[in-house]
Amino acid sequence: MRIVRVIALAAALTGGGGAFGEGGGVRGTSVAAANGVVVHGVDTEQGVARLRSADDRLARGDAAGAAKDLADLASADLSRLVLDSEGAYLRMSECVSQRVAALPPEGLAVYRRLLDARADAALDAAAKSGDTTVLARECVRLPHASAGFRMHVLLADLRLARGDLDGAARALEDALRLRSAAED
Predict the structure, then answer these.
(1) Whole-angstrom distance, CA of residue 14 vs CA of residue 89
(2) How far apart are the first and last CA of the chain?
(3) Which helix (H) or strand (E) segment is 39 a member of?
(4) C-alpha angle 119/74/117, rounded to 5°?
(5) Strand pairing category for 81-83 and 89-91
(6) Whole-prediction pTM
């Protein structure tokens, strides 16, 4: 009887497709890596297709089209893992951030035109309410928006005010990483 409950629990958690159900845990597909290790939460479909589309557009010189694809991904599930060209699994958020950072100035301008209002709204709401929940999520999704650096600094300030020294340090580290990347 116990084995039946374990199997039923596993089926409920995985939804039959290798992903945990709505509301928590890993989503995506489970795949075997080259070394035989099973990696869970891998995006093998829409997110990867959008990344490849952005890559293809950028290779063809369509920076505006690549920026639009990357801006669309700001609303996707960025917690999934993606197999990059180097054979390593990265979070979707990191893949998007790397590509946005590599956009030429005209592509970055399009990206910012599409997402700056959303970043400004998150920054203003957090400054007024002191709530870090939405701000933390938008910092991951919109680090290259015009307000990205200020969002990270405010997140660090709010976390520090709550006594979350580790969280504040991580937000400042991200802010400094973004600032130094922008200056390169």
Answers:
(1) 21
(2) 62
(3) strand 38-42
(4) 25
(5) antiparallel
(6) 0.74
Residue found by looking up tokens 């290779």 in the block: 59
Please give the Cα distance from 67 to 110 (Å, whole number).
6
DSSP for 44-98? -SHHHHHHHHHHHHHHTT-HHHHHHHHHHHTTS-TTSEEE-TTS-EEEHHHHHHH
Q: Return the C-alpha torsion angle 100, 148, 181, 169, nearest 10.
A: -130
Compute the distance between CA of residue 122 and CA of residue 118 in angstroms, rounded to an integer. 6
In what helix (H) or strand (E) does residue 38 lie, and over which residues does it extend?
A: strand 38-42
H or E element at residue 31: strand 29-32
Say how far apart CA 57 and CA 64 lie, in whole Å: 8
Distance CA 83, CA 86 (A): 8
Contact (Cβ atoms closer than 8 angstroms) between residue 71 and residue 115? yes
86-138 per-position pLDDT tens digit: 677 888 899 999 999 999 999 999 999 999 999 999 999 999 999 999 999 99
List beta partners, residue 31: 39
> Can you name the residues that pair with 90 across neighbouring β-strands?
82
